[in-house]
Design goal:
235 residues; mainly alpha; two-stranded antiparallel ribbon; 10 helices
Length: 235
């Protein structure tokens, strides 16, 4: 049986609110740092419930496009509200727990092995990666490339061809989880500090401590707003 004539999905009301907010920002020439109208005003002007507006704001927060300050309103983080399609977010939310589970299993062991097998060149690569990450953060970025280089250096330092192949097989999903984590407020600096703790344990040749530090780090990576978001809340 063909699936082409399956029932069409009904657009969520907050997705329509997202479209209107995107248009409002573009037509109004708003830029990063500008404040959106209060949720109550948006609900009245759009003729929808505050719940629908609130859910739209949550989606924008998850995507790192706005910052909702407690008691202080909602502010643009970027110059536009070019949002990722909600269905793509839903799919990413569905697979993220499995990716994080795999990362903890693999990377904890890789850190342990790295502490046993690392060479001076391996340590130099890790230090270089963290220096790059620090520079990215100081320049106002999230440190994504430095983060990628650090985890790649730890993988290389483990000198395990099979584990390295496993990591390559899920590289795209790992990159997705990295971006999701580093867009959380305050996360880049915290991640950098955790990386330094991992490096210290590896450099000191302490396998158990390196594994524990990596495990703590990946569990922090798992704490993202996306996993708290319920895409069906405003059907």
């Amino acid at each position: 049986m063909t699936d082409a004539l399956r029932p069409m999905a009904k657009q969520r009301l907050y997705e329509q609110v997202l479209d209107r907010l995107r248009q409002y920002v573009a037509e109004g020439g708003l830029r990063a740092g500008d404040r959106l109208p209060p949720e109550r005003d948006l609900a009245q002007r759009l003729g929808v419930s505050r719940a629908s507006v609130k859910q739209a704001i949550v989606v924008l927060e998850v995507q790192g496009l706005v910052e909702a300050r407690h008691g202080g309103g909602t502010y643009l983080v970027r110059d536009s509200l070019d949002t990722e399609p909600v269905e793509r977010m839903v799919e990413r939310r569905r697979r993220l727990p499995d990716v994080l589970e795999a990362r903890e299993a693999l990377e904890t062991k890789l850190a342990e092995l790295a502490a046993e097998r690392r060479t001076d060149d391996d340590l130099a690569a890790m230090r270089s990666a963290l220096a790059h990450m620090a520079e990215e953060i100081d320049a106002g970025g999230a440190g994504v490339e430095g983060d990628r280089r650090f985890h790649a250096a730890v993988t290389a330092a483990a000198h395990s061809a099979l584990l390295a192949e496993f990591m390559r097989s899920i590289a795209e999903q790992i990159a997705e989880s990295r971006t999701e984590s580093l867009r959380q407020p305050g996360r880049p600096h915290r991640s950098l500090a955790q990386h330094r703790a991992i490096l210290d344990a590896i450099a000191d040749g302490r396998p158990r401590q390196a594994a524990a530090a990596m495990s703590r780090h990946v569990r922090t990576v798992a704490k993202v707003r996306l996993l708290d978001w319920d895409p069906e809340e405003d059907r």
